[in-house]
């Protein structure tokens, strides 16, 4: 079991939920997003050899963080906007805030987040591409990418281009979503919300299977080459991980299994390999080099899947503020 200083933020949250007991932990889970439930559940399942002093430190840190937060519950929208803006900057925070607040007021959106990707695709595939683009923009990128993979092949480039072109969604568009999901959204006194955009389209494509991603980009390059290039400029690919600072790389490596890393590095360039080796202990680096040399050939699809898995971990850590991604554009998260 890692020492308390080596635990990630997710692990600390999982440890805190284990400490408060089943009843209180269940009450917290009711207010979390599906992705958050999954991440916390995995973290809680992996924790072992927990010592009492570790629990005390985590609880003490939690109490310290919330002690002066008297604004919670009072004009919470303004509080969320202020905190997110301070943390992410005004430009990046704007789209994130609108997605958070819009989803919070929508039982329909919350319900769809718990559905299987194939079921969501079946629900929306006969709708207008603009409606599909809005729905995917409101989902977390991994889920949106999975849904995209189940949609008809000819629809995908158009949908991604529409996501990239989205700037705001008007109340009448939200009312169309009401009809699709057969749920009443809060349309009264609702302002236009910022969703979609180039970075959102790039984020979804980053989470899409490599074959589907390549097909979508090829078709977009034929239909709208300028837009396709803007999206590709914002995409973060596996080899871009060599732009991580040493601390971020070390944090990422702690979250990646050895088997996944070994498979992913089959298709990596030498610069990234050296970056990874330099952020491991000498013994671990030597073992990984030896394993790479002795490893049998692997299918390209398996290598790409392993790289996608590591990219998803990197984005999760970046979303949690535990690492900083760079490359591929001005800002990626």
Q: Tell me the structural class.
A: mainly alpha
Q: Biggest sheet, open or closed, and with what strands and sense?
A: 2 strands, antiparallel
- Tell me the CATH architecture of the largest domain: Orthogonal Bundle
The parts where pLDDT drops under 50 for at least 5 residues are: 70-74, 183-193, 327-333
Give the count of helical stretches. 20
Terminal-residue CA separation: 31 Å
Oligomer: single chain
CATH homolog superfamily of the largest domain: Flagellar motor switch protein FliG, alpha-alpha superhelical domain
How many E strands?
Answer: 2
The rounded Rg comes to 21 Å
Strand line-up in the sheet with most strands: 1-2
Protein name: Flagellar motor switch protein FliG
Domain Flagellar motor switch protein FliG C-terminal: 219-325
Organism: Methylomarinovum caldicuralii
Membrane topology: Peripheral membrane protein
Q: What are the salient characteristics of this protein?
A:
333 residues, mainly alpha, Annexin V, domain 1, 20 helices, 67% helix, 1% strand, globular, disordered C terminus
Descriptive overview:
The protein has 333 residues and is an all-alpha fold. It has three domains: 4-66, no CATH class; 105-234, Flagellar motor switch protein FliG, alpha-alpha superhelical domain (Annexin V, domain 1, Orthogonal Bundle); 238-319, Annexin V, domain 1 (Orthogonal Bundle), CATH 1.10.220. It is built from 20 helices and two strands. It has helices at residues 9-20, 22-29, 34-46, 52-66, 76-88, 90-104, 107-113, 117-124, 129-138, 141-150, 156-165, 171-181, 198-206, 210-223, 225-234, 246-255, 258-264, 270-278, 282-294, 300-319; strands at residues 168-169, 193-194. Strands 1-2 form a two-stranded antiparallel sheet. Helix 10 crosses helix 13 (198-206), helix 11 (156-165) packs antiparallel against helix 13 and helix 13 crosses helix 15 (225-234). The chain is globular. It starts with 8 loop residues before the first helix and ends in a 14-residue tail after the last helix. The model is unreliable at 70-74, 183-193 and 327-333 (pLDDT under 50).
